[in-house]
Design a protein that fits this description.
four-stranded antiparallel sheet; about 20% strand; alpha/beta; 14 helices; single chain; seven-stranded mixed sheet; globular; 13 strands; binds pyridoxal-5'-phosphate
Length: about 350
């Protein structure tokens, strides 16, 4: 029986086309800038996001860290959401490795930061204070139900930040999911930000890698930051080849995942004992109500015994993520199994 793995879209395996492209990839030493496949991927990524340049990094975590190290110096401060991935799940790398302090402000349920909260968190020029350098946003917002941020909202934050001499970095790990959900081009969603990181290794199915995009000077500095955190890769074209397939073949199909996530939410919401929020993208959160006959741990264990994996214990919620390797039948089996379990 097939295991239905809904823990994350990071569990996606490379497609046969990716494996073929990896096998055939032309490679060189990328630290010397001589890997043609990496160069092609970086060019394509920059073009797809409407930025001048891009640099290939190992992971989303590294992409965000390299961005922060490039925008900020030691003692600088960053305004970001209190439920952002960068604050919660990246080991405080900005502080640990960069001497940068985070200033978390509340993420609203839709993943946004209130403009007045951003404005209120910007430091004045005073010897007691660190200098605010950067505002970070996340699109789609993982912990906030995978909600996409609109181009208009992002532009408003950017205008506020730029007007106060700050820069803006976007954690766009799932920016193509946001674009698909909003029916817009990813370029529109990142037009006003100074840098954006997106991941190839989530819903786009590539085995490894993320890209950090921005203007040419920023990316030249980011290459130095990547090197110092140990991210200079050599014949990385083997990985970039899968990334090219991801950008060419996988971004246009993400709406299918979103439709299946909605179907799963509707099916689960009909089961007594479950409250599910309607997802806008591929990430679905749900929780048990008082009617439930099982605990969260019992549900996770019971599903796992029946070949269905998802995450429990996320702020008292379950998370299920739809991706390329989940089909309609898997969605129906998950609903039926949950119904039988509860
Ligand atoms: C919103 C967001 N940003 C960054 C990351 C980090 O990506 P990686 O796991 O490649 O380090 C993740 C990972 O799930 C994420 O969801």
């Amino acid at each position: 029986m097939k295991t239905i793995d809904l823990r994350s879209d990071t569990v996606t395996l490379p497609t046969p086309a990716m494996r073929e492209a990896m096998y055939r990839a032309e490679v060189g030493d990328d630290v010397y800038g001589e890997d043609p496949t990496v160069n092609q991927l970086e060019q394509m990524a920059a073009e797809r996001l409407g930025k001048e340049a891009a640099v290939f990094v190992v992971s989303g975590t590294m992409g965000n860290l390299v961005a922060l190290l490039t925008h900020c110096g030691r003692g600088d401060e960053v305004i970001l959401g209190d439920r952002s991935h960068t604050l919660r799940f990246e080991q405080g790398g900005m502080a640990a490795l960069g001497g940068i302090t985070p200033w978390p402000i509340p993420n609203q349920p839709d993943g946004t930061l209130r403009l007045e909260d951003v404005a209120g968190a910007i430091r004045t020029d005073n010897a007691h204070f660190p200098r605010t350098r950067l505002v970070c946003l996340e699109n789609t917002h993982n912990l906030c139900n995978g909600t996409p941020l609109t181009a208009e909202y992002t532009a408003r934050v950017a205008r506020l930040a730029h007007g106060r001499g700050l820069r803006v970095h976007l954690d766009g790990a799932r920016i193509f999911n946001a674009a698909a959900a909003l029916g817009t081009d990813a370029r529109e969603l990142v037009r006003e930000v100074d840098s954006v990181m997106f991941c190839l290794s989530k819903g786009l199915c590539a085995p490894v890698g993320s890209l950090l995009c921005g203007d040419a000077d920023f990316i030249a500095e980011a290459r130095r930051a990547r090197k110092v955190v140990g991210g200079g890769m050599r014949q990385a074209g083997i990985l970039a080849a899968a990334g090219l397939v991801a950008l060419e073949q996988m971004t246009e199909r993400l709406a299918e995942d979103h439709a299946r996530a909605k179907r799963l939410a509707e099916g689960l919401a009909r089961i007594p004992g479950i409250a599910a929020t309607q997802p806008q993208t591929n990430i679905l959160y749900f929780q048990l109500t008082e009617e439930a006959t099982k605990t969260q741990d019992e549900v996770v264990k019971g599903l796992a015994e029946r070949g269905i994996l998802l995450l429990g214990r996320l702020e008292g919620r379950f998370r299920a993520v739809i991706h390329y390797w989940i089909d309609d039948e898997d969605v129906e089996r998950t609903i039926e199994t949950m119904q039988a379990l509860l």
